[in-house]
Amino acid sequence: MTWPALRRSLIRVGAMAAKETIHVRRDPRTLALALAMPVVMLVLFGYGVSTDVDHLRLAVADQDDSQASRALVRAFQGSGEFLVVTHRAPEQAEALFRAGDAAAALVVPRGYASDLAQGRRTTVQLLVDGADAMIANQLLAKADAIVRAESRRLAGLEALRQELPLRLRLWTLYNPAGRSALYMVPGISAFLLAITAVMLTALAIAGEWERGSMEQLFASPVGRLEIVLGKLLPYLALGLLELQLVVAFGAVAFDLPMLGSLPLLFLVGLLFLVGMLGQGLLISVLAKNQLVATQAGTLSAMLPAIILSGMIFPIENMPLPLQLLSRLIPSRYLVHSLRGILLKGNGLAVLWPDLLALAAFAAVIVTLATARFKRRVA
Amino acid sequence: MTGAPSAIVARDLSRRFGAFTAVDRVSFEVEQGEIFGYLGANGAGKSTTIRMLIGLLAPTGGAATVAGHDVATAPDAVKASIGYMSQKFSLYLDLPVMENLLFFGAAYGLSGQALRRRAEELLERVDLAGQGGVTTGDLPGGLRQRLALASSLLHRPRLVFLDEPTAGVDPVARRVFWRLIRELAAEGTTVFVTTHYLDEAEYCRRIGLMVDGKLVALDTPEGLKRTWVPDRVLVARGRGLTGAAGALRRAPGVKAVAPFGAALHVRVDAARLDAPAVAAVLAAAGAVAPEVEEAAPSLEDVFLAVVDRATPEVAP
DSSP code of B296? Predict the structure, then answer.
């Protein structure tokens, strides 16, 4: 290609991109979709859809009502995990569960204090509402930890001397507090980037068909690739801005760490975005009207990003066919590498397969979309 | 050399979509600087012809040269040397007027100050000077149409294609638009225009008429009228015409009687009847003081005659 021809081509791509930027600037809905939605979603998912369980309502039936039993109840209360709602007889616990007033009931038997004072083993009962398995599991683990701590306190120095032969020492890395926000934010970014990138391009290009301006563009010397490039560049920039926003908001609101390299984060984001923009392009080329493009865009971007990306449901727990299917979903690679970069400080040495997969998806889908784009016009 | 080469040359240009032939062996030439009108009912093949001539659609048969370039082998060269205003209004309504012009200018490879100056110049030319900052969607239809014309002229094409440029525009705006078209032609720009407003077609130097994918007539407006409407057309005015129309229809030498507003259009064999004779028939049939005068045949008469004759006996 000669220099003047290349220069004209660059002018055309630049003009397309500039025009698209004006469209976005003048359309508050697009901007809101791209920039306000991430923040809203982060707040919703980060705070609302928390899988952490605390302030569980605990009914206490203290039949002993001694200094020792009150100490045990205080231990439950003081942990911050339980909220002691009421003192009732054990028979009333089921009624409380049914009414949803308590997630568990603690029963301290008569003679608790005297058994302890005489050095006998004693038992307290915990009734648990198993209807919500996730809450019940966490509740059991927490109650177990509290009772063990209390039992160590009671045993005192004696226990320290009688060390058990085997002990498991747990050390949780990367997300020591087990906070779901840290785990969710990278997942949400994938979801948000996917949906805005696919939707915006699908809408932008389907809009040109619907308006009839696509024919005007084809009648001018603007080439197909120039249209595609000019259309995608502004949304690529918008997507990267969004990624930045999500990570920054995560850092401020949820203390999301940023242990890895920022350029690597953007490289991963860029590869993912190109793939998503290509997907939007393909949808709009096939749909040619904004309504269909919106629906196809939402479905094809949102569902895999939520269900198959590992954002919420661990991929390891999926049946094999779904695990294999998830390998075709770019969100999966983005979620994995974002978690790696943000929480673990992983570098290229670990993440190169993710990058490779993202690049391959982007290359295939953009090629496919451009080819279809050509065939639409005879 | 006998003057400038033709701006458009079409030879047996055809386009089939599967079994359906949208354009069937159409041949014509358009000279540099002429306003060439392309007429036909919806679906007659006008838009398909234009789409082939501007390099959007590959012909399936025949050949065409536009601005010296072959549409089948060099569509990009064709696109760069012509202006095109499509049937569907296709400016960006959410963009300001000036941004639309700058965008389409850049699409043709213009840039910088030269483009901006050219855009200002065209805004002035289409009476939109000083409106560069207005959002395009806020302009009334007639002004948008002129803006669309301006955006197709940015790169100074010697040939412009206008596909139904005045569809849905009010009569005053249509007149202004046609003044612009005539000015363009006067400067030597060739204008290829489709329309289904037959009054507008009178402005064209030559007219091609399409029926069912075939070019069935091609001449100046006067030539078309002479060839296709050899009969005398009379206009009768007065009271009680409706009652008298039946008797007039039965009179020898009367070929057709059609109501035309409050008047009657009467087509008669020129050799057998004239205006006074028709007036006499009407008066005898009960019309009060009928006035009958000779009218020039309109292109509408031509169009109806052409469609009439072409439809039942299309050559296989």
Answer: P
